[in-house]
Design brief:
By secondary structure, this protein is α+β, with helices and mostly antiparallel strands. The chain has four domains: 18-138, no CATH class; 153-266 and 625-694, no CATH class; 271-503, Transposase Inhibitor Protein From Tn5, Chain A, domain 1, CATH 3.90.350.10; 509-538 and 554-596. β16 (439-450) and β17 form a beta hairpin. α1 (56-69) packs across α3 and α17 packs antiparallel against α18 (554-578).
Length: 700
């Protein structure tokens, strides 16, 4: 900080006519004699802040900052000729409503029309006198404190978690009581009911993070309304969103980021996910018969060097990670992990079943795409007695076309398409590196005929499921896994990664570049030898007059050159075999080490996205009972979640009233769904009942 003299001189070297006043705590305030001139705040001879008193907004902020630095309000009010109560109101407004609330419609740009600016931004903050609003808030807080008879701290634990956090009453969800308030985000409230009823969602989060549940409620709103980042929350109506999320008021971005880092720094993301997935399995939220595993690209566009994943649509490797997601037959997410680079889908197929086998009565049937086609992988699954279904990768189309139609003996319908199928066998043999005897096994070969498109293909199966069941399973793979990703990407911020940090990767190996060079040389030698053989075939045999072959004939020269090239080819092949397949980049020059993207923040956000997605799947199933138009069912659900409404919070319940949809049929389904959700009797951790209804405005 630049130290400047308390005596400020003008251009002529003369001391300017200013008055200095002590505000206490070594703070001094200098004012020009002009009532609307300049004010300068000093501490121990150094300038802290300067402000033009003609700027009303800057003057308010200056007063609040001065008091926060230690200025005595009484002395400050005397110097600035304002009342002590005004200073108090400024401080309380800043405390409860932030800088926006303190400013409320003013703009420091004097070229703009104040009245126009206030009219433009008047709907972004609570209306009315700030002093009265502050007094109302303080009165409600005192009433709440006096009425609270329960224990001051409520403890929550969940699953196998040995960590217990404490949350004060004021930090509990929906702790603030209020009468009816309008909210354009009221439809998101239906997610609260399902999550609290099925998964004890808040108890799970509070048990791990305590007051950190608040950032998860904001993530819930983001996932439910497809808000793509924390930065976009600046467009929210903070009070309207806060009353639906149980926060009172959604704070600024800086506070949201602080909340996020408070929970992410604890490193508990995988424990929370495991507790959540375990409860889903135990309570029957997800199916246990078919588990579909597939990978989804999470691209990276930064400047750091990271491992490459694969973009299926573009058919090329790109920097990024792979989210290995396991879904049940209805598309509900059972579990997921995020792998560095391309990932190991085959290993995840085995890991996810082994991980949850103690929670399931028998092994689910693993369903995967042609990416998992590998006799080594099939051998592992057969030895583990893991049932599976997959597509056959190497299909003989000519052989399939030659099969007589009557050979397809079993007929069924799937997704309004007619299929016929018959079962055969296909043998495999694989010899592990540490064994001498090959593992020979036989898989079920499903020969499938699609009558609708008149196309034939094959699948593979292992297990006791029937032929039609196995065929339906592989036909369902697209709808259960691929469509899940497509819908998630369109409706939810699937690729968003808050708190993007990089760490040193444990995988610093790359493919040996010398092997690639040797491979190019081998290909070049192969091509050269092939050309020499062509020349040899076209050349004519030449001999001496006595009939003996000429020693320097073209054929002899070609034979010699072919032998030389073949010797060189054998030498290069031997050199290639001696090279190691991988190299550590740290041992090479001019190579940057690989970075790994820290997945803690991504896991936390995807935990909320997964919760919202599975709740959405369940509510759509319930909504199907009241609405028979299947093509419009999902759109109806999202219309309900985006409904405006009103929220009231009392000592016993949180009641949300949604605006009715216009169409009679859609409104009836909306009302039936709300009645069903209310009948569950979901409660907050403090015991408040969650009620949702459809009706007219309570202010009429």
């Amino acid at each position: 900080m630049l130290q400047q003299s308390l005596l400020i001189e003008d251009n002529n070297g003369e001391q300017s006519q200013k008055q200095r006043h002590s505000l206490g705590n070594d703070l001094y305030l200098e004012l020009s004699k002009d009532p609307k001139g300049q004010a300068i705040l000093y501490r121990q001879g150094g300038i802290i802040k300067s402000v033009a008193l003609s700027d009303k907004v800057a003057k308010k902020l200056f007063i609040v900052e001065s008091v926060n630095l230690g200025a005595q309000p009484t002395k400050l009010s005397s110097v600035l000729k304002i009342s002590r109560q005004t200073i108090h109101n400024y401080r309380e407004s800043y405390r409860y409503f932030g800088a926006e609330g303190l400013i409320y419609g003013y703009n420091p740009d004097i070229s703009k029309n104040y009245e126009k600016q206030r009219a433009l931004h008047s709907d972004q903050l609570p209306r009315g006198n700030k002093a009265e609003q502050v007094a109302t808030i303080r009165a409600k807080q005192k009433e709440l404190e006096a009425a609270t008879t329960a224990q001051k701290h409520l403890d929550f634990s969940f699953g196998d978690n040995d960590r217990t956090e404490t949350v004060s009453d004021q930090q509990q969800p929906f702790a603030e009581q209020h009468e009816w308030e309008s909210s354009r985000y009221a439809g998101v409230f239906i997610y609260w009911i399902v999550l609290l009823f099925q998964s004890r969602w808040l108890q799970l989060i509070i048990g791990h993070f305590g007051a950190g549940w608040r950032i998860f409620s904001v993530f819930l709103l983001m996932a439910g309304l497809n808000i793509r980042s924390i930065e976009q929350t600046k467009h929210l109506r903070s009070r309207e969103a806060g009353v639906v999320l149980g926060l009172g008021t959604v704070p600024s971005k800086s506070t949201l980021w602080k909340w996020f880092y408070d929970v992410s720094d604890q490193g508990l993301a995988r424990r929370v996910l495991d507790d959540y997935f375990r409860r889903q399995i135990r309570t029957g939220v997800v199916g246990l018969w078919l588990w579909f595993t597939d990978g989804h690209l999470l691209p990276y566009t930064g400047k750091e060097k990271v491992h490459y994943s694969y973009n299926t649509q573009r058919r090329m490797p790109v920097p990024g990670r792979t989210s290995q997601v396991t879904c049940d037959h209805s598309g509900r997410i059972v579990d997921f992990v995020i792998d560095e680079g391309k990932g190991e889908m085959k290993q995840q197929i085995i890991n996810v079943v082994d991980k949850w086998q103690p929670e399931v009565p028998e092994r689910p049937i693993a369903v995967f795409d042609r990416e998992g086609y590998d006799k080594k992988f099939f051998s592992r699954l057969v030895k583990a007695e893991q049932p599976f279904v997959s597509w056959d990768k190497n299909v003989d189309n000519d052989h399939l076309a030659s099969i007589e139609d009557h050979a397809f003996t079993q007929e069924f319908t799937h997704n309004n398409k007619r299929y016929r199928v018959f079962e055969a066998e296909k043998s495999f043999s694989y010899t592990p590196n540490n064994e001498t005897e090959p593992h020979t096994f036989t898989l079920r070969h499903l020969n499938l005929w699609n009558h609708t498109s008149n196309r034939r293909t094959c699948g593979l199966a292992y297990g006791k499921q029937s032929t039609i069941e196995a065929t339906r399973a592989i036909l369902s793979r697209w709808g259960a896994s691929e469509n899940t990703f497509k819908h998630l990407q369109n409706r939810h911020p699937l690729h968003y990664h808050p708190g993007f940090t990089m760490v040193e990767s444990e995988r610093q190996e790359i493919a040996n570049p010398e092997i690639k060079e040797k491979q190019k040389l081998i290909a070049r030698l192969h091509k050269g030898i092939a050309k020499l053989h062509q020349k040899l075939f076209k050349s004519k045999e030449q001999g001496n007059q006595d009939g003996t072959p000429r020693s320097n004939s073209q054929q002899q020269r070609l034979h010699t050159e072919i032998l030389t090239q073949q010797t060189e080819l054998d030498r290069v092949r031997e050199e290639k075999k001696c090279l190691s397949e991988k190299l550590d980049v740290s041992s090479l020059e001019n190579y940057r080490s690989f970075k790994q993207i820290d997945n803690e923040g991504k896991y936390l956000f995807d935990f909320v996205t997964t919760s919202v997605w599975n709740a959405r799947k369940q509510m759509v199933d319930w909504l199907r009972e009241y609405y028979d138009c299947e093509n419009d069912l999902v759109d109806l659900f999202y219309a309900i979640t985006q409904s405006h409404g009103w929220v009231r919070n009392t000592t016993t319940e949180v009641r949300v009233r949604l605006e009715p949809l216009q169409q009679t049929k859609r409104r009836a389904a909306q009302e039936q769904l709300c009645r069903k959700l209310t009948a569950f009797g979901a409660q907050t951790p403090m015991g408040k009942h969650l009620v949702i209804e459809v009706g007219e405005s309570p202010f009429k």
